[in-house]
């Protein structure tokens, strides 16, 4: 089934070239179906690249998904045109009266800044608080996962001396679990961040459960026990060359970055990267949409009280 996106969104051409089923708003208007409504708060600098990455994953599921794109402020973006932002993005005031089946909050290049020093931290808190009443399930990615764990559960991240960048091996810690259905016992996922969570604090928290972790990179998948919030402390949406682009950008900025771990063939930046995580990323988003959005959300989104926590003995 397709992901429905605005007419003329740049991601449409890329996704169609990959045989991912996307549908324009004008075509979808003729279909009699209750699609899933997903809001994406895009905090990444290159909006179009991140849109395409997330829509690629959402479009690879059997559900029809309507997507709204949300921006955090009206400031001019250095990496995305004003026309694109004004055409395809909405302000929070435009959507806060709505309910959504799902919300995705992306990462952000703010890994070395205290949350309270982020210029739009109050807006982030407002949207997270709103999501607890207006969204069936919230998917937090990387920086947003740290921000959500801090704001909702008062868990502080720890800044690292060097950036953790690369593709790391992870193990599932819960068997069975709906979100992990179809996962191998071990799988790879990319990381690109300057901070980490204390895994023992996560394990000890009564309202949280760790579903997957890495011996090197720490906790990766953390879910609230009421099934409402999923924290993905990594970047399953990244494409093959995303870490390479970040690595070269950091070199150009004179930052002398470490070579991303387990990423370039033979650990040689002159050789091609190896993508080891695409199947996992697709399965993760598909399971989230199925088990924590589609199967929990009320048919009538105006009645969020009809939502019930996931219960399964799988």
From TrEMBL:
Q: In its keyword annotation, does this UniProt entry include Acetylation?
A: no
Q: Which key words are in the record? A: Acyltransferase, Amino-acid biosynthesis, Cytoplasm, Methionine biosynthesis, Transferase
Q: Name one GO molecular function term.
A: homoserine O-succinyltransferase activity
Q: Which residues bind substrate?
A: 163, 192, 249
Where are the active-site residues found? Answer: 142, 235, 237
Q: Name the pathway it acts in.
A: Amino-acid biosynthesis; L-methionine biosynthesis via de novo pathway; O-succinyl-L-homoserine from L-homoserine: step 1/1
Where exactly is the site Important for acyl-CoA specificity? 111
Kindly give the PANTHER family that the UniProt entry links to this protein: HOMOSERINE O-SUCCINYLTRANSFERASE (PTHR20919:SF0)
Which family would the database say this protein is a member of?
A: Belongs to the MetA family.
Recorded protein name is Homoserine O-succinyltransferase
Q: What's the source species for this entry? A: Shewanella intestini
Gene behind this chain?
metA
């Amino acid at each position: 089934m397709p992901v429905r996106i605005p007419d003329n969104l740049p991601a449409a051409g890329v996704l169609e070239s990959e045989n991912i089923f996307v549908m324009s708003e004008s075509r979808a208007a003729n279909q009699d179906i209750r699609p899933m409504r997903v809001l994406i708060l895009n905090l990444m600098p290159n909006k179009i690249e991140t849109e395409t990455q997330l829509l690629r994953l959402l479009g690879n599921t059997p559900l029809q998904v309507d997507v709204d794109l949300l921006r955090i402020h009206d400031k001019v973006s250095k990496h995305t045109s004003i026309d694109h932002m004004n055409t395809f993005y909405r302000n929070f005031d435009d959507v806060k009266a709505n309910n959504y089946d799902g919300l995705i909050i992306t990462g952000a290049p703010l890994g070395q800044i205290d949350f309270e020093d982020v210029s739009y931290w109050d807006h982030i808190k407002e949207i997270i608080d709103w999501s607890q009443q207006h969204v069936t399930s919230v998917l937090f990615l990387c920086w947003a996962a740290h921000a959500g764990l801090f704001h909702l559960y008062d868990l502080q991240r720890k800044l690292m001396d060097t950036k953790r960048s690369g593709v790391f091996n992870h193990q599932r810690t819960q068997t069975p679990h709906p979100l992990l259905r179809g996962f191998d016992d071990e799988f790879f996922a990319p990381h690109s961040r300057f901070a980490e969570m204390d895994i023992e604090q996560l394990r000890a928290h009564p309202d949280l459960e760790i579903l997957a972790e890495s011996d090197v990179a720490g906790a990766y998948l953390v879910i609230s026990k009421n099934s409402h919030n999923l924290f993905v402390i990594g970047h399953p949406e990244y494409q093959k060359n995303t870490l390479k682009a970040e690595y070269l950008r950091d070199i150009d900025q004179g930052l002398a970055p470490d070579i991303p771990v387990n990423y370039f063939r033979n650990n040689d930046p002159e050789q091609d990267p190896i993508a080891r995580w695409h199947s996992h990323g697709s399965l993760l988003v598909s399971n989230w949409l199925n088990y924590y959005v589609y199967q929990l959300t009320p048919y009538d989104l105006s009645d969020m009280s009809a939502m019930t926590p996931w219960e399964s003995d799988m």
